[in-house]
From TrEMBL:
<dbReference type="InterPro" id="IPR046847">
    <property type="entry name" value="Xre-like_HTH"/>
</dbReference>
<dbReference type="InterPro" id="IPR024467">
    <property type="entry name" value="Xre/MbcA/ParS-like_toxin-bd"/>
</dbReference>
<dbReference type="InterPro" id="IPR011979">
    <property type="entry name" value="Antitox_Xre"/>
</dbReference>
<feature type="domain" description="Antitoxin Xre/MbcA/ParS-like toxin-binding">
    <location>
        <begin position="90"/>
        <end position="140"/>
    </location>
</feature>
<dbReference type="Pfam" id="PF09722">
    <property type="entry name" value="Xre_MbcA_ParS_C"/>
</dbReference>
<feature type="domain" description="Antitoxin Xre-like helix-turn-helix">
    <location>
        <begin position="26"/>
        <end position="85"/>
    </location>
</feature>
<keyword id="KW-0614">Plasmid</keyword>
<dbReference type="Pfam" id="PF20432">
    <property type="entry name" value="Xre-like-HTH"/>
</dbReference>
<protein>
    <recommendedName>
        <fullName>Antitoxin</fullName>
    </recommendedName>
</protein>
């Protein structure tokens, strides 16, 4: 699975802060509140043509409040880190951003025809289900 430094990279956390690249460093960054720009970055990576996508992760009114403080809540950071893990593995499996996006935004039979992106955003268990599907694709069992 994807390492903590790779998740930090996807989230755009500074490489010059090695503390944020370990498991507990990433956890501390999330608890302290990830920068709002991490959300903007994830939205741009996942849905570059959808300016409203970030509001699926954080409702618009909440996003506007977060922008003034420049920090996300811990729960929002956890959701973002989960998405970063899935995005990183999807890129690893599919090799291109376009194909990774295609997988995430297309209904999948193993998710009762729900889109992987929606399942990941919804819950931690949903994120694990999608990571399992991606792991099966990467390591060769049917998905």
């Amino acid at each position: 699975m994807m390492g903590f430094a790779a998740v930090a990279d996807v989230l755009g956390l500074p490489a010059r802060e090695p503390a944020s690249r370990s498991a507990f460093g990433l956890l501390s960054s999330i608890e302290a509140g990830l920068p709002v720009k991490a959300l903007d970055r994830m939205a741009l990576l996942l849905a570059p043509d959808d300016t409203q996508f970030k509001y699926k992760l954080v409702p618009k009114a909440t996003y506007e409040r977060r922008k003034s403080k420049h920090r996300l809540s811990s729960d929002e950071g956890i959701r973002l880190a989960r998405l970063a893990r899935v995005w990183g593995l999807a890129l690893d499996v599919w090799q291109t951003e376009a194909e990774a996006r295609d997988f995430l935004f297309r209904p999948h039979a193993m998710l009762e025809d729900r889109r992987p992106i929606d399942v990941v955003i919804q819950s931690e268990i949903g994120g694990e289900l999608v990571l399992d599907i991606l792991g099966s694709l990467k390591y060769g069992s049917a998905a």
